[in-house]
Design a protein that fits this description.
Layout lengths: L1 E4 L6 E4 L3 E3 L2 E3 L5 H6 L8 E7 L5 E7 L7 E7 L1 E8 L10 E7 L4 E5 L3 E7 L4 E7 L8 E3 L20 H4 L13
Antiparallel strand pairs: 1-2, 2-10, 3-4, 5-12, 6-11, 6-13, 7-10, 7-12, 8-9, 8-11
């Protein structure tokens, strides 16, 4: 795997190294030793699949606070997504900065999302599947989020937002959220 630093402290775009032959290819998607060698500590405890029927679907912007923060490894395994993270760690050099990246089934790039960074995505195609490898158990009492249309974030969604959960429309604005530890 190739680990590329991003503008968000501790976030990486991760490309696979393919071993190809006439049958297709083989590639490692996750290796704890390779992650540790790259300075990324992540103990995966869950793998989740998000199936999205329609393009324009937005999921996010989610994170979990202490004592249950979680890192995420996001990979699009069918279709394509516009993936976004926002750094909410007050002592991070990239505090309140954001990163967006296109993940597709063809480019085979994964995004490592550090703990206490809000994460969300928009599907760019119908029938898009996203695989999440997560370092902690989902604990709803520690879940937080930001609105996808928060004017302070200036998030640029490539398509009109035409499918989103009621819960995701009710998250507070960034101005109403002091830090990721609240």
């Amino acid at each position: 795997m190739d680990f590329r630093h991003t503008n968000i402290e501790g976030a990486y775009a991760i490309s696979i190294n393919k071993r190809e032959d006439e049958r297709g290819f083989f590639a490692r998607l996750f290796c704890q030793d390779e992650f540790k060698a790259a300075g990324i500590a992540s103990d995966v405890v869950q793998a989740n699949l998000s199936h999205n029927a329609y393009s324009g679907t937005v999921r996010g912007m989610h994170y979990q606070i202490e004592p249950a923060p979680e890192t995420k490894l996001i990979r699009c395994i069918r279709g394509s997504i516009h993936d976004v993270i926002v750094d909410l760690r007050p002592h991070s050099p990239s505090f309140k900065q954001q990163l967006s990246i296109t993940l597709t089934e063809d480019n085979n790039i994964a995004l490592f999302v550090p703990a206490l960074c809000a994460h969300g995505f928009q599907t760019l195609e119908d029938r898009t599947d996203v695989l999440y490898m997560v370092s902690g158990q989902y604990q709803p009492e520690y879940e937080r989020g930001l609105r996808h249309d928060d004017p302070a974030l200036h998030l640029k969604w490539p398509l009109p937002v035409n499918h989103i959960s009621d819960k995701d429309t009710l998250w507070p604005l960034l101005s109403d959220t002091a830090t990721a530890n609240d």
